[in-house]
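fold description:
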Amino acid sequence: MSVRALWIISNEKGESVAVKYSRRYPTVEQRAKRLAGSLYVGVPEDNTVLQLLLTELGLSDPDKPYMALRDDCLHQPRSPALEIHVEGPSGGVIWPMLAISQGPLILACLPLVDAPSEFRPPLASLFSVSQGLTLLAGLLAFLLGSKGKPDSEGLATRLAMLPSVVLQVCPLGTPLDIPQPGTVATPTVPTPAGTQKQPAWKTGLHRGRAVVNVALSEMVRSMQYGHEHRQDLWDVYGTVTCKCEVEGVLPNVTVTLSLPPNGSPLLDVQVHPCVSSLDASILAAMSVEDCDSSAFSGPYKIPFSPPLEPFRLCSYTSQVPVPPILGTYQLKDEDNQLHLTVSLKLHESVKNTFEYCEAHLPFFNRNQIGNVEVKVTSGQLDVSKEKNMLVWVLGQRFPKSREVSLEGTVSFSGLLPGPKDPLCSELTAYIKLYFRVPDMTLSGCCVDQHSVQVYSSAKPRIVTSRELLSSEYYIWNSTGNAPVSSGHSLL
């Protein structure tokens, strides 16, 4: 549900009726225009809306003259959903205009109806009508206060606060919440001299316990051929994701990324627009250029003013010397059987603690797997439900030697053909690895929770984490005709 426009009208006795607050949502209006097509009627100016509303409500003239559109016995009022007739060459009918009044206030909004203009669904079936009335009722309760009859000073105070309240409860035209009745939404964190203006991209303020979550994740990809004439390829792509629940309009947070003394510098660094400043040398290091010892190697201080929702603070690449798991795969066709030999070795720099680690050996463009006589030195071997793949579950740890192997034969005697794949034909086969290593990154990049600085009156709880994940991690059969990736990098 969305709102095209919202109005707050003051109807205080002894004073002229006036629009005290109005808000329009251009993005919602564009959607209304697409839905209505040639029957689209735009929202008039505030003064025109005021006069049309007062006329429809019978408040435009003390004498209340007869009007056929409003007072004829054939007219069936649908209050609080009104039908507004706009005159002029670009005029037409605006429906349903929701309006409620109490005391000195009239509140109105025009919800977006997700239906063609020539078709009017029953009001009871329109979710936008009920949501619009809920929004108006919540705003009315906020403006009138707990007693329902505020003095002029209290009403003026709440009207002054209304822009920030509406920004919080109805950002971009979509009602998310209603303000608490009778409360004054003053900020709980004192601000320095002068009032900070809340930016349009920030839909509200956080209130409550301060918590900052920083998660660092690295994805490693690899193409290993096991052939002296083909160069193995691998790359690392890292992201830093943040969720900052910190009080204040524009709180300042600084996250510092650190590398080990012999770590490779971060390359291709890209940051979120909320980052306030950054050393130019950090952004200058590119993977397409030769990385030398003069490249910036940290620490990488990233100051920013966070939005409320989770966001990606930055991303980077890194040139690590070796992939985490080195493997060889040999597949030979002998006597209508495939003879398999696989060896996997975990590099000594990688923690031998996995959340999961699996090796998938697909056999496409063949019939279903029949007989399997394969032995593994560690883990468990299963056949997939579709009988076209061997699944080698390595578990949470490699053995003490950090090496595992698989050897045996597979025959295909199934009656049904398996799936087709042009990259896995005959001896052109591969192993695909899936793994996740918690509390580790291949580049050594980390975020120390003590290095996260938050400039706020409340001391936040800092939570940091990091992980290493596989992505497109292939080990090709060295006896087959494996495809060669173009370019040095897989990114």
User: Anything to note?
Assistant: The chain has three domains: 3-173, 211-322+442-475, 325-439. Confidence is low (pLDDT under 50) at residues 182-194, 486-491. The first helix runs from residue 26 to 36.
